[in-house]
Amino acid sequence: MTTADVKKNTEQRMLKSIDTLKVDLAKVRTGRAHPGILDHVQVDYYGNPTQINQVANITLMDARTISVQPWEKKMLSAIEKAIRDSDLGLNPSSQGDIIRVPTPPLTEERRKDMVKLVKGEGEDAKIAVRNIRRDANEVLKKLLKDKSCSEDEERRAQDDVQKLTDRFVAEVDRLVAEKEKEVLTV
């Protein structure tokens, strides 16, 4: 392994952390309906916990209403119960073979809670990026110890890893600020 390999691997791992943050932030409710908020809801499907999107079609009826249409009619009540029991604070109602899930507007207090959640997700992403930096620096020190690279190469590579870290931490801050603004917009 060379210092270039270490830098490349580090950047790829940091990109994965950013992608994970984007997925996590997409799940945070903003007062508008989007099918992604039901992604982590699990429904009991013949004794197995299964994601709702694997047993039903999830679509938007309008800006504040999600429509869930189970593939099997007998799953209607199980899906409705799973949504109601989730931590999303949603109250679904079934109409024939479709479940309507209205998303109520967020209160000011709930928006502040969501902002705290967003900041927490951002902090977790920063910790992940810093852990990746630490791992890369350990590998670089090992390369130096094994005499696979010179001290100058190791020092330059550490500087590059730090620049990568700074870049990705700034990206995390940008994503968090963007989501905060979205959550606080009424």
How far from one another are the termini? 51 Å
Range of strand content: 15-25%
Query: Segments where pLDDT lies below 50 for 5+ residues?
Result: none
Radius of gyration: 22 Å
Q: Average the pLDDT over all residues and give the rounded result.
A: 88
How many helical elements?
A: 4
The general outline is elongated
Strand order of the largest sheet: 3-4-6-5
Number of strands: 6
Helix percentage range: 55-70%
Q: Give the topology string: H per helix, E per strand.
A: HEEEEHEEHH
Main beta sheet: strand number and arrangement? 4 strands, antiparallel
Based on secondary structure, the structural category is alpha+beta
Question: What is shown here, in short?
Answer:
This protein has helices spanning 3-26, 76-85, 108-145, 151-184; strands at 42-45, 48-51, 56-62, 65-70, 93-95, 98-102.
Which features characterize this protein?
57% helix; two-stranded antiparallel ribbon; single chain; four-stranded antiparallel β-sheet; 186 residues; alpha+beta
Describe the structure.
The chain has about 190 residues and is α+β, with helices and mostly antiparallel strands. About 55% of the residues lie in helices and about 15% in strands. The protein is built from four helices and six strands; from the N terminus they run H-E-E-E-E-H-E-E-H-H. It has a four-stranded antiparallel sheet with strand order 3-4-6-5, covered by helices on one side. The chain has a two-stranded antiparallel sheet with strand order 1-2. Helix 3 packs antiparallel against helix 4 (about 150-185). The chain is elongated.
